[in-house]
Design brief:
binds zinc ion; single chain; alpha/beta; binds adenosine monophosphate; 483 residues; 3 domains
C-alpha cells in the first residue's frame, strides 16, 4: 500500500447515475467482473477499448492499495445475433458458415483475443472464466430460481421480469425505445422476459448442447455472467463493467437473475460501470457491420499497438471516441515524445525505488492521484506525466520512481518502450532496417564530408524503396516508411 489513497476514488455508477465513492465489500480488496468477448469472430478495436478501460480501472484500484480480483468471461456459447432472444446462435452460425466446429472457432478467436490483450499491455485477470466450463453450474443456478421466477415455453425456460423489483432500472428511460426489446418469442409473459435456457428445437442437433431438466439445449447468454460472477466474486461484489450497450439488455437481465438468486433487491454488484463507444465516421463500430478494424489492421499499417492504448487513454472512458488514422498518428507522436523524455531520464536515474520526497514531486503525485480518483480521468493524468518529464532539475531517481508509478496505472510500458519500436513500419513494406540504418550512416558521413552529391543519391535510393527521410525531425525519427 502506498500513499495513493489520499483522494477517495470516485466512480460513476450507471445504476444510480451518480458519482459514488468506492467502498469495498471486503476491506482492502477490490472484486471486479468484466463482460468479455463473444468468440465467434475477432474483437474489433472498439471491443478492445472496453478492456483497456477495465484494465485502467484494475490498475488504479491496485495502485490505490486494493488487492484486486478481476474476472473476465469468455462467451463461447449462448449469445444470439440479437441481444434479446432473437436470431441465431452466434457460435453455431459461424460454425455453419465456416465448416469448422463451434469448439474450434471458439478456441481460435479466444487465442486471437488473448494475443491482442497482451499487445495492448492489458493485465491478465485472476481468471478467464470460460462459459462452456460452467454449464452444469449454470443449470444448478437456473434450477435454484426456476420455481419462483421462471416459466417454460416450447423454446426454453424464460425469466419473468415482473417477479423482481424495479426491472430495468439500469437501462432507465431508454429501455422502451430499443429494437432488441421487441417481443419476438411467442408466449412470453412480458416483452422483456428472456431465455435462461434455450431448448434445442425438435429434430435438430446443436454442436454445443447439454442435458437439463428442461431438455437438451444451451444456457442463455445472461445466465453465464450471473453464475460466474457470483461463483468467483461472491453474491455481492464491488464493480461490474462492460460496454455501454450492455446497459440496455444484458446487464438488466443479469441484475434480475442476481436478485432472484440472492433473494434480495440488491443488483449483485455495488457499482456498474460502462465505457462509451469507439465510433468512426459511419457510427458505432460493430462486428455485425462486417467490415471492422481490428488491432492487427493497425499493426499491419505500421502502428505500435500501444499507440492505440494511448489514443484510448487520451479520452475519458465515458466519452465517445472517434477513431481516425489522424487521431492514431497524433497519439503515436505524443507517445513517442514521452518515450524520448523517458529515455533521457533513464540515462540519468539509477533506481525507480527512491522515496519521493521533493515537494514538487509530491505535489505532482497528488495531482495524478486526484485525476485518476475523479472517475478515472486518464486524459487529465497524461499532461502530469509530461510535466514530470520537464522537471529536469529535480532528483532523477525520484522522478523515475514517480514515472514508474504513473505508468503502473497507465500501462504504456514507458521504461522499456523504445523510440525505434514506435517507428511506423507497415507489414507489407518489406524493409531491411539494418540496411536502411547502414545507408543512413553512409549518408551522414557523406554530408559531414560535404559530399552532397552522394548524400542526395543515397536519399533517392531510399525514396525509391519507399523510405522517407526526416531530416531535422524534432522527434529524431530519422526515417519512416511512406504510408
Ligand atoms: P462482444 O464481443 O460483442 O460481446 O463485445 C465485447 C465488449 O465490447 C462488450 O463489453 C461490449 O459492450 C463492448 N463494445 C462493443 N462495441 C463497442 C464499441 N464500438 N466501442 C466500445 N466498446 C464496445
Ligand atoms: Zn456479461
Amino acid at each position: 500500500m502506498n500513499d495513493n489513497a489520499a483522494h477517495p476514488l470516485k466512480l460513476f455508477n450507471s445504476l444510480s447515475r451518480q458519482m459514488v465513492t468506492f467502498a469495498p465489500v471486503h476491506p482492502g480488496e477490490a472484486r471486479v467482473y468484466t463482460c468479455g468477448p463473444t468468440v465467434y469472430n475477432y474483437q474489433h478495436i472498439g471491443n478492445m477499448r472496453a478492456y483497456i478501460f477495465a484494465d485502467l480501472l484494475g490498475r488504479t484500484l491496485s495502485w490505490k492499495g486494493h488487492i484486486l480480483t478481476h474476472i473476465i468471461n469468455i462467451t463461447d456459447v449462448g449469445h444470439l445475433t440479437s441481444d434479446a432472444d432473437a436470431g441465431d446462435d452466434k457460435m453455431e452460425k459461424a460454425a455453419a458458415q465456416s465448416g469448422k466446429s463451434a469448439w474450434d472457432i471458439a478456441q481460435y478467436y479466444t487465442n486471437a483475443y488473448w494475443k491482442d490483450i497482451e499487445r495492448l499491455n492489458i493485465r491478465q485477470p485472476a481468471k478467464w472464466a470460460v462459459a462452456t466450463d460452467h454449464v452444469e453450474e449454470m443449470i444448478a443456478f437456473a434450477k435454484s430460481i426456476a420455481d419462483k421466477h421462471c416459466y417454460e415455453l416450447d423454446s426454453g425456460l424464460y425469466f419473468d421480469v415482473s417477479t423482481v423489483p424495479d426491472y430495468g432500472r439500469l437501462a432507465g428511460a431508454q429501455s422502451d425505445d430499443i429494437e432488441g426489446r421487441i417481443d419476438t418469442v411467442e408466449g412470453k409473459r412480458n416483452p422483456q422476459d428472456f431465455a435462461i435456457w434455450r431448448k434445442t428445437p425438435m429434430g435438430e442437433t446443436r454442436q454445443m448442447e447439454w442435458d437439463s431438466p428442461w431438455g437438451k439445449g444451451a444456457p442463455g447468454w445472461h445466465l453465464e455472467c450471473s453464475q460466474m460472477s457470483i461463483k468467483y466474486l461472491g453474491e455481492t461484489f464491488d464493480i461490474h463493467t462492460g460496454g455501454i450497450d450492455h446497459r440496455e439488455i444484458h446487464h438488466p437481465n443479469e441484475i434480475a437473475q442476481n436478485q432472484a438468486h440472492n433473494c434480495s433487491e440488491h443488483s449483485g454488484a455495488n457499482i456498474w460501470m460502462h465505457n462509451n463507444f469507439l465510433i468512426d465516421r459511419a457510427g458505432k463500430m460493430s462486428k455485425s457491420s462486417g467490415d471492422f478494424l481490428r488491432l492487427q489492421v493497425l499493426i499491419d499499417r505500421g502502428f505500435h499497438p500501444l499507440a492505440y492504448r494511448m489514443m484510448c487513454l487520451q479520452a475519458h472512458y465515458r466519452s465517445e471516441l472517434e477513431f481516425s488514422w489522424d487521431n492514431l498518428v497524433a497519439a503515436l507522436t505524443r507517445l513517442k515524445r514521452i518515450v524520448m523524455g523517458v529515455e533521457r531520464l533513464l540515462q540519468k536515474a539509477e533506481t525507480n525505488a527512491a522515496a519521493i520526497e521533493h515537494p514538487a514531486l509530491i505535489a505532482l503525485q497528488d495531482k495524478f492521484d486526484a485525476a485518476l480518483s475523479e472517475d478515472l480521468n486518464s486524459s487529465k493524468s497524461l499532461p502530469l506525466l509530461e510535466e514530470l518529464l520537464t522537471l529536469k532539475k529535480l532528483p532523477a531517481d525520484q522522478r523515475l520512481t514517480l514515472l514508474s508509478e504513473m505508468d503502473s496505472v497507465l500501462g504504456l510500458e514507458l521504461s522499456s518502450l523504445t523510440r525505434t519500436a514506435l517507428r511506423v513500419r507497415p507489414m507489407d513494406a518489406e524493409v531491411d532496417e539494418t540496411a536502411i540504418e547502414a545507408k543512413l550512416d553512409q549518408r551522414q558521413k557523406a554530408k559531414s564530408e560535404k559530399d552532397f552529391a552522394t548524400a542526395d543519391i543515397i536519399r533517392d535510393e531510399l525514396t525509391a524503396q519507399g523510405v522517407e527521410l526526416m531530416d531535422g525531425d524534432p522527434l529524431r525519427w530519422d526515417w519512416k516508411i511512406e504510408l
